[in-house]
């Protein structure tokens, strides 16, 4: 689950001697090539010819290899070994049919069954997920919507799950008796928006939510994720999501401690705080001074695109942060032959970054396309800034679990977090998301956030039309109309600052 950041980080260790299996004496020397993954240990299967229709970019290890042997390089090689048979479409467990591009079909029925199951009971060993109840609801409901199912059927059940998780002091915890947390509150608000309707909206105590958010605001512009908790860009993104969907006042509540630091608004100092999170690599980290990561990059960019028009809020950052370097780092997240994204430098491809990294691209594309001119897509666009083909091949070839559900990579089990975000990434890649000059809200704040539209991309696809998913709002991760509906319902019931 994404709620606990930084746990179980793997350390890169440099081996002091060559690995025991080594048969040559000069394996570590630059320029001396080691066996490529397809001819190594488990390479029997990968020496088989790929299906027709697959470019060699996606069937062979990269031509340039790092000759230094590290744990990192070995893990990358092992990952290629696992992925190549799936990319070539020759793994015996893969289900078809395969199309003329050598891409397997989306196993719709299996994934829908998996998602419905994910909203049922869990065995005792899953007690660790008790703090993630709002997330489990969000992942299941968003996944079902993406697959064309009707999530509004879960309205009553969702309300009864979330009611005891809300605290009278504002916000939602993971369940009854747990303190409020921005991650859980974000997931709860999104899940309620997806099921929609008066009963769902009115469950949320917006007045106490606003008071609580005021207590999380920090003097440097950022937000703590809970009272006494850590401050990071997840917090900033979650707060902007919540106040824009719920039409909470942007003013800080009168008793907010951040007022003592001279701040007046929830948005004060926020863009400056986010710009301090850009690292020397060009990526964006969870908080100033630590490693850039794709999941935090999405939080930061989506947060900026919520605060104002992305062509203003993202490049305005250029004063403090470097846009070309950001594009460079984000581009380096997509690997070949895998086709999917990694979260950070020298780490492995993972299906969930189809959303976290994949979701950054439409935001940057929109920022680069500039101020919207009309009700339709812009007359000219910089276009797609990553390989849509590579992502489609990774998702459909490598991320579909044999028994339903989607996964990080071959060899991993499916879970509802990966099922949701792999499908969200597939959907984002299948649609062109752009902003128009009209917004669902007439208020001075967040007009840009409610001005997005989308249209399916019909040309140059390596997947079948029957595998096209529903579009999600690029900032909120919920159906477009549900974002507008929640906002308008709340606008009709203003909270006094
Ligand atoms: C590294 O895990 C992952 C992180 C440091 C951040 C995870 C954060 C999210 C998924 C997003 C949270 C967003 C919200 C809105 C709460 P890892 O070391 O297991 O993975 P890696 O090797 O791919 O970096
Ligand atoms: K990971
Ligand atoms: Zn993952």
Automatic annotation (TrEMBL):
<keyword id="KW-0862">Zinc</keyword>
<feature type="region of interest" description="Disordered">
    <location>
        <begin position="1"/>
        <end position="62"/>
    </location>
</feature>
<dbReference type="InterPro" id="IPR008930">
    <property type="entry name" value="Terpenoid_cyclase/PrenylTrfase"/>
</dbReference>
<keyword id="KW-0479">Metal-binding</keyword>
<dbReference type="GO" id="GO:0004660">
    <property type="term" value="F:protein farnesyltransferase activity"/>
</dbReference>
<keyword id="KW-0677">Repeat</keyword>
<keyword id="KW-0637">Prenyltransferase</keyword>
<dbReference type="InterPro" id="IPR045089">
    <property type="entry name" value="PGGT1B-like"/>
</dbReference>
<dbReference type="Pfam" id="PF00432">
    <property type="entry name" value="Prenyltrans"/>
</dbReference>
<feature type="domain" description="Prenyltransferase alpha-alpha toroid">
    <location>
        <begin position="106"/>
        <end position="478"/>
    </location>
</feature>
<protein>
    <recommendedName>
        <fullName>Protein farnesyltransferase subunit beta</fullName>
        <ecNumber>2.5.1.58</ecNumber>
    </recommendedName>
</protein>
<comment type="similarity">
    <text>Belongs to the protein prenyltransferase subunit beta family.</text>
</comment>
<dbReference type="InterPro" id="IPR026872">
    <property type="entry name" value="FTB"/>
</dbReference>
<dbReference type="GO" id="GO:0008270">
    <property type="term" value="F:zinc ion binding"/>
</dbReference>
<dbReference type="GO" id="GO:0097354">
    <property type="term" value="P:prenylation"/>
</dbReference>
<comment type="function">
    <text>Catalyzes the transfer of a farnesyl moiety from farnesyl diphosphate to a cysteine at the fourth position from the C-terminus of several proteins. The beta subunit is responsible for peptide-binding.</text>
</comment>
<comment type="subunit">
    <text>Heterodimer of an alpha and a beta subunit.</text>
</comment>
<dbReference type="InterPro" id="IPR001330">
    <property type="entry name" value="Prenyltrans"/>
</dbReference>
<dbReference type="GO" id="GO:0005965">
    <property type="term" value="C:protein farnesyltransferase complex"/>
</dbReference>
<keyword id="KW-0808">Transferase</keyword>
């Amino acid at each position: 689950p994404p709620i606990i950041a930084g746990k179980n980080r793997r350390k890169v260790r440099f081996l002091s001697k060559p690995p025991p299996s080594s048969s040559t004496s000069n394996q570590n020397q630059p320029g001396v090539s080691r066996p490529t993954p397809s001819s190594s240990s488990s390479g029997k299967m990968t020496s088989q010819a790929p299906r027709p229709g697959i470019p060699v970019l996606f069937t062979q290890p990269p031509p340039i290899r790092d000759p230094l042997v590290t744990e990192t390089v070995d893990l990358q090689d092992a990952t290629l070994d696992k992925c190549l048979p799936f990319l070539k479409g020759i793994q015996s467990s893969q289900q078809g049919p395969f199309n003329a591009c050598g891409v397997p079909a989306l196993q719709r029925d299996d994934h829908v069954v998996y998602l419905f199951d994910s909203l049922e009971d869990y065995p005792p060993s899953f007690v660790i997920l008790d703090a993630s109840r709002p997330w489990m609801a969000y992942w299941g409901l968003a996944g079902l919507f993406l697959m064309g199912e009707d999530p509004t059927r879960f309205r009553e059940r969702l309300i009864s799950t979330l009611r005891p998780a809300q605290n009278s002091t504002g916000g939602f915890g993971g369940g009854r008796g747990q303190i409020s947390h921005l991650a859980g509150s974000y997931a709860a608000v999104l899940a309620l928006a997806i099921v929609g309707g008066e009963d769902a909206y009115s469950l949320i105590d917006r007045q106490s939510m606003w008071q609580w958010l005021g207590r999380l605001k920090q003097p440097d512009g950022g937000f703590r994720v809970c009272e006494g908790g850590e401050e990071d860009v997840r917090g900033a993104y979650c707060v902007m999501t919540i106040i824009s969907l719920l039409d909470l006042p942007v003013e800080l509540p009168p008793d907010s401690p951040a007022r003592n630091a001279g701040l007046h608004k929830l948005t004060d100092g926020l863009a400056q705080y986010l710009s301090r999170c850009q690292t020397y690599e060009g990526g964006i980290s969870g908080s100033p001074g630590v490693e850039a990561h794709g999941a935090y990059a999405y939080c930061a960019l989506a947060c900026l695109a919520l605060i104002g028009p992305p062509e203003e809020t993202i490049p305005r950052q250029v004063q403090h942060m470097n846009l070309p370097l950001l594009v460079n780092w984000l581009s380096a997240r997509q690997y070949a032959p895998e086709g999917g994204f990694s979260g950070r430098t020298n780490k492995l491809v993972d299906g969930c970054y189809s959303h976290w990294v994949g979701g950054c691209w439409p935001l940057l594309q929109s920022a680069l396309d500039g101020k919207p001119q009309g009700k339709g897509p812009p007359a000219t666009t910089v276009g797609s800034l990553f390989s849509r083909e590579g992502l489609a091949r990774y998702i459909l070839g490598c991320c579909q679990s044999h028994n339903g559900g989607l996964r990080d990579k071959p060899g991993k089990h499916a879970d509802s977090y990966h099922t949701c975000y792999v499908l969200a990434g597939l959907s984002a890649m299948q649609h062109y998301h752009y902003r128009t000059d009209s917004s669902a809200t007439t208020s001075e704040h967040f007009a840009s956030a409610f001005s997005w539209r989308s249209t399916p991309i019909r040309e140059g696809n390596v997947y079948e039309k029957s595998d096209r998913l529903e579009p999600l709002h690029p900032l909120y991760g919920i159906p477009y109309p549900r974002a507008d509906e929640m906002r308008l319902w709340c606008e009709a019931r203003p909270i006094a600052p």
